[in-house]
């Protein structure tokens, strides 16, 4: 269980260590200003190959019908251990708009501990590896691109 801090659009195409610091600070400030909730965990984050599910919880801690789905192949970057809080896990996601343009959004969740945030970063990396391997096997990723080069772009930086 995590507390979903929200999302904010981010710019750039190169996602390197530290690229989520500024968006996470913005989300953290919004969250701490509005923090009147008695039940801080408001979501359940489930990371699987191909998809990440963010189940929203009601005030009783039960799953609602509202769920956000993220395709692992569209996650450009993920990281844990931010300066503002070591308990934050964040990922950059390529959202495709109705007009087929896209934007990069940074999503962040607050975990119960630094260890939990790091576990999510490692789970995301494993999901990416399985997804990438499957896509390569299916021929959806062409052999002429270096797998090492592509997988490096999507590496998790867990601090």
From TrEMBL:
PID domain spans which residues? 72-132
Keywords of the record: Cytoplasm, Phosphoprotein
Q: Which SUPFAM superfamilies match?
A: PH domain-like
InterPro entries assigned to the protein according to its UniProt record, in alphabetical order: PH-like_dom_sf (IPR011993), PID1 (IPR039112), PID1_PTB (IPR039114), PTB/PI_dom (IPR006020)
GO CC term, one of those recorded: cytoplasm
Disordered: annotated segments:
138-159
Kindly give the PROSITE patterns that the UniProt entry links to this protein: PID
UniProt function note: Increases proliferation of preadipocytes without affecting adipocytic differentiation.
Subunit structure and binding partners:
Found in a complex with PID1/PCLI1, LRP1 and CUBNI. Interacts with LRP1 and CUBN.
Its protein name is PTB-containing, cubilin and LRP1-interacting protein
What organism does the UniProt record list as the source? Leptosomus discolor (Madagascar cuckoo roller)
């Amino acid at each position: 269980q995590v507390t979903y801090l929200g999302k904010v659009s981010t710019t750039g195409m190169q996602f390197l260590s530290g690229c989520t610091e500024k968006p996470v600070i913005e989300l953290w400030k919004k969250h701490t200003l509005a923090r009147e909730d008695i039940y801080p965990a408001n979501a359940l984050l489930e990371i699987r190959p191909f998809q990440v599910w963010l189940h929203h919880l009601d005030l009783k801690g039960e799953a609602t019908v509202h769920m956000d789905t993220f395709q692992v192949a569209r996650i450009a970057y993920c990281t844990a251990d931010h300066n503002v809080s070591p308990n934050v896990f964040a990922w950059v996601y390529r959202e495709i708009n109705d007009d087929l343009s896209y934007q990069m959004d940074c999503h962040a969740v607050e975990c119960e501990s630094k260890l939990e945030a790091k576990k999510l970063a490692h789970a995301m990396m494993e999901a990416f590896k399985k997804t990438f391997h499957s896509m390569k096997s299916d021929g959806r990723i062409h052999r002429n691109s270096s797998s090492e080069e592509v997988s490096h772009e999507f590496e998790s930086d867990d601090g």
